[in-house]
């Protein structure tokens, strides 16, 4: 493993550690230099009083108000930007609590945006002042097994605007951006739910200009699937030989999440034909295996190979043409020399 790849891995692990520490070990951060600090006020419906995120057991149609205390650490007014989003899982197997384009399975018992509401008015906090974010929770009318998970995101609107792509001073201002996420987990009971996974759409595509075969792994249950190990293999249809293989460990699926699992082709070109993707997933002493056939057209393979940053262009025919052209030139020269010599 090269030093560059080791560095990337350590940076990824450090980022994951910081995210988990902020989310699970304590949302209240008041270190010097941070724009604001956050402290959830745990209600009576809280299942575990030792954690600093909302973990609520509520009955169908039950309502409550969630409160988060905010302290402005700045000497200027804080224009607080808030947002709510349902928990999803990205293609790196990491649960996200902010807005994104990740999908949810059709089995989702309710949509977070319909259960938890934020006030429409903006929040401005005086210098070194305190205020609250209040959310209204109205549980679904029907009972559901498992968990409904989402998150409240909080950020400094002024810092967000300063770090937008249109701002010419983005490289400097990005150091002043702060965002906190408060997880919100809602359930009707604390009974454990056995996870059920399935394989959805399979298709060739690109991730960061790199060719992959992507399989959509569906979590059909409203429960977290932790420490998930996933192996993906791509074979020619009817063959037992794996052409491309990707193995990942330590993944986490959010309740009812749909995770796009990429099997990386690396620097090998994709060819037209019929293939089979086999996904093997292991978690919580359970094992799932799915297989699905898919087709790659010549046009699709050509488009992906041309736009990939890893696949080197195939210059075979160009080289043949160059050799043929050179040979023709030499042959013409020899014939011309022979004709001149015969005349003389």
Automatic annotation (TrEMBL):
The chain crosses the membrane at residues 320-340. Residues 170-306 form the WxL Interacting Protein host binding domain. Pfam families: WxLIP_HBD, WxLIP_PGBD. Residues 36-155 form the WxL Interacting Protein peptidoglycan binding domain. InterPro entries: WxLIP_HBD, WxLIP_PGBD. Keywords: Membrane, Transmembrane, Transmembrane helix. This is DUF916 and DUF3324 domain-containing protein. It comes from Furfurilactobacillus milii. The lineage of its organism: Bacteria, Bacillati, Bacillota, Bacilli, Lactobacillales.
